[in-house]
Amino acid sequence: MAFNAQQTSRVRAIVLMVALVVVAAVALFVVTGGFAPAGTAGSRGSAATGEATGAEAAGDDASAADAMETVDAQYGTAAQSLLAQLEQDPSNPTALLNVANGYFDWGVAALNHATDDDDRAHATELLEQAIGYYDEYLADNAGAKSALVDRAICVFYTGDHASAIAALEDLTQNVDPGFAPAWANLGMFYENDGRTDDARQAYETAIEAAGDADAYGVRDYAQDRLDALNGTS
């Protein structure tokens, strides 16, 4: 099927979100692994530092809670609007796809703001709802490549990496071997799972498939990740 402007814009946004998640994961590793507590336990100075740290932590918790409430308010309102449109026209595949995309966006935003197990469970639930709507859409639109990629990303972020990888491997091997966004996201999946050689090959294929036109805006992302893996960035 041909992709309209809205689908093209969405695929570009997906690749951008994936890039941000990869960068955030690297930053988190550096922060959590690179610093040790200062001061000596039992000293007056360390006690004062502990009190300040506790206050800062409480402030951070409140900020995180506020951020999640904002995410839920914004994306939840949008999702309800999309659901209302679907209820008015339940046979409209575009309305159904919009609902799936709305829950996708909500789930990713919630995941990016998650700070504890409850937050992550909330994000997972939203992503699972998106998967359900994608399944409903794909039942009548089996070759919708952008929806297949979106669904695979949702599956990946719920923690089922093997199924997400299998889905994009099937897409790139059996549906459209030249669909650049699928290769770029497959490279990200491989990279996160430590399959460096497979990730390199996927990114290289994404760059080749994108060509000079780069209709989906994945070339720069794939090249950046490839350079990082090769130590040339």
Computed over alpha carbons, the radius of gyration is: 20 Å
Let me know the largest β-sheet: none
Coarse morphology: globular
Count of DSSP E strands? Answer: 0
Helix content: over 70%
β content, as a range?
A: under 5%
Q: Number of helix segments? A: 9
Order of helices and strands: HHHHHHHHH
Average of per-residue pLDDT values? 80
Distance between the termini: 36 Å
Which residues sit in consecutive blocks of at least 5 with pLDDT less than 50?
1-9, 15-58
- Overall structural class, as computed from helix and strand content, comes to mainly alpha
Quaternary structure state of the chains depicted: single chain
Tell me the count of domains.
Answer: 2
Describe this protein's structure.
The protein has 233 residues and is mostly helical. The protein has 2 domains: 125 residues; 74 residues, Alpha Horseshoe (Serine Threonine Protein Phosphatase 5, Tetratricopeptide repeat). 79% of the residues lie in helices and 0% in strands. The protein is built from 9 helices and no strands. Helix 5 packs parallel to helix 7. The radius of gyration is 20 Å and the shape is globular. The two termini are 36 Å apart. The N terminus is likely disordered.
Observed structural traits:
233 residues; Serine Threonine Protein Phosphatase 5, Tetratricopeptide repeat; mainly alpha; disordered N terminus
